[in-house]
Amino acid sequence: MIGKIVISFILALLIFIPCSILIGTLDIRSYYQSPAVIASPPCTDETPLRVYMYDLPRRFNVGMLDIRNTTEAPVTVVDYPLWPDNSGLRKQHSVEYWMMGSLLNGGGNGSVATRVFDPELADVYFVPFFSSLSFNIHGHHMTDPETEIDRQLQIDLMGLLRQSMYWQRSEGRDHVFPMTHPNAFRFLRDQLNESIQVVVDFGRYPKGVSNLNKDVVSPYVHVVDSYIDDEPQDPFENRTMLLFFRGRTHRKDKGIVRAKFTKILAGLDDVHYERSYATGENIKLQETHLPLAAFLTQS
Ligand SMILES: *[C@@H]1O[C@H](CO)[C@@H](O)[C@H](O)[C@H]1NC(C)=O
Ligand SMILES: *[C@@H]1O[C@H](CO)[C@@H](O)[C@H](O)[C@H]1NC(C)=O
Ligand SMILES: *[C@@H]1O[C@H](CO)[C@@H](O)[C@H](O)[C@H]1NC(C)=O
Ligand SMILES: CC(=O)N[C@H]1CO[C@H](CO)[C@@H](O)[C@@H]1O
């Protein structure tokens, strides 16, 4: 029984942590906009991972951020667009954008990964297809006609990769695909069963396609802006609340885990636990609570 409770709690944490928006986190942009931030990396004595990034036509990545512009030339560090301010919840799955931006900026200077331009020198091959954004803008309802565009991009991408000798050589085992939306690459994901997928969980695909032996679990990108005007002396003392939660109290599988959290947390004095939905408006509202709580989550 105790074992069961512990496992449920760990599972609950695993579900909550990726959705959580913790205070004081670094805006991921700074990882590639300011080399100073990456000056003291966690594992200095290890050689950085050498990453080759495919040059894909823009329709596979940044073209989706500005669909009026049909330029096909691969994006470069010079014209990499800013992540749009008004992207709302899409930002949650934007790991693909930040990874690509980081590689375009070359890594280097103590970064854990460095971009190489000669594929022969690479340890891994990064495929900069914004599969989550493609799902979000082309196929969100899964039955709409636009979902055909999402499917076609996946077919075209696999066509390009099959022509690559680096793909052929390893059958994709050393190829990295960001796909943090659970429905990203949904039509052909089984063809990436050998490849390294950057995911947020393993909920929707068979073990043979996605598993911890080969894939990487990344956190969601925070959708609430970091609060930086904290009281410098003692920011934690200054905050009157331990936890602020506003989000769905019921989700998948009847929301068993969240129901447990509700039981534990709702009603505690220094916890604000409120049932709500993550909309653009609510996210803005959330930002006003940042200075108050030690921890803040929304999902
Ligand atoms: C590495 O750091 C040096 C000195 O701070 C800087 O001039 C250079 O642009 C940096 N390179 C990269 C790839 O960040
Ligand atoms: C489309 O994007 C390219 C690359 O950033 C840029 O050079 C070009 O001016 C853009 N075209 C239009 C019509 O905005
Ligand atoms: C991946 O799928 C292919 C085709 O179904 C299969 O031959 C291969 O054994 C699978 N690889 C793994 C690691 O499951
Ligand atoms: C919640 C709280 O006490 N906030 C205070 C933290 O410190 C700043 C600066 O001293 C105050 O302006 C806030 O009211």
Describe it:
- The chain has 299 residues and is of the alpha/beta class.
- The chain has two domains: 83 residues, no CATH class; 188 residues, no CATH class.
- It is 28% helix and 14% strand.
- It has nine helices and ten strands.
- Strands 3-2-4-5-6-7 form a six-stranded parallel sheet. Strands 1-10-8-9 form a four-stranded mixed sheet.
- The radius of gyration is 20 Å and the shape is globular.
- The chain starts with a helix and ends with a strand.
- Bound molecules: 2-acetamido-2-deoxy-beta-D-glucopyranose (NAG) (4 copies).
- The site of one 2-acetamido-2-deoxy-beta-D-glucopyranose has 4 residues, from loops.
Distance between the ends: 29 Å
Total beta strand runs: 10
Which consecutive residue ranges, at least 5 long each, have pLDDT under 50? 1-41
Secondary structural class: alpha/beta
Helix content: 25-40%
Overall pLDDT confidence? 79
H/I helix tally: 9
Largest sheet: 6 strands, parallel
Fraction of residues in β-strands: 5-15%
- Hetero groups: 2-acetamido-2-deoxy-beta-D-glucopyranose
